[in-house]
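[job 4471] stage=fold_predict status=RUNNING
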Amino acid sequence: MREKLIFLFFILFHSSLNAQENFLSKSDSLNTKRIVITSSSIGTVWAGSIIGLQQVWYSNVTKSDFHTFNDSKNWMQMDKAGHVYTANKISQLSGDLYKWS
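[job 4471] inference complete, writing structure tokens
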């Protein structure tokens, strides 16, 4: 009997959740509050990732002027493929966030 009541509760609770407007659904009009939230979040994540990268990756490296060198024998261009893939995913995520807003 107890299991049936719990099951019934979840069925009824689920149907009431479906009746609510989903916060994550895309907006059909410009919502300035969502634009501010999205832009602030993207800016904060970007700044945090730059600061984190500096602290984790470059803190023990001696700094020098800008220079180039051929490292294709070491990485075999996989770093460039990673940059392209990451840029694509970040662009997709940013686009989806702005569509939401």
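[job 4471] summary: The first helix runs from residue 2 to 18.
[job 4471] exit 0
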